[in-house]
Amino acid sequence: MEKLLSHYTATGFVVNKKRDKLLFIFHKKLQLWLPPGGHVDAGELPHEAVLREVFEETGVRAQIIDPVGILDLLDGASEVQIPTPYAVFHERIPAHGDVVAHMHYDFLYHMQAIEETVVHAEHEVTEAQWFDQQQIQKLNTTKGSKAICEKLLKVG
What we know:
Blueprint: E1 6-15, E2 22-27, E3 32-34, E4 37-39, H1 46-58, E5 62-64, E6 87-93, E7 102-113, E8 125-131, H2 133-138, H3 143-155
Parallel strand pairs: 1-7
Antiparallel strand pairs: 1-4, 2-3, 2-8, 5-7, 6-7
């Protein structure tokens, strides 16, 4: 991949309580359906960013499903374990509007909704909605998003 300015981002693949649907937003600038997420702010950890971004964009409160689980051997004072991402992608983001092409180091988290009522943030996204596997495969989204959704909805 070409060398471009890089940003750290966090994305939430949020399943509903029945684990048969995933939450997507319509990204205004990219004109794509994507799982909710965004940039990691200064001083913020990726798992904190994904919890914040999912709520800001959709109004949905969710929890991270940690594929590894928390280790009990750390003292909590000098070292703590943070939730493990489901995957980490290195993504090329094309130029759009006044934003130049750049790279994202995207921490992808498997999450489950605590509250499922969607109230999307109009200043950030055009729409937020729950989709089942069949609907996701028809969405204008990325190949990576479709592949992860297929795995998560099969596994539940």
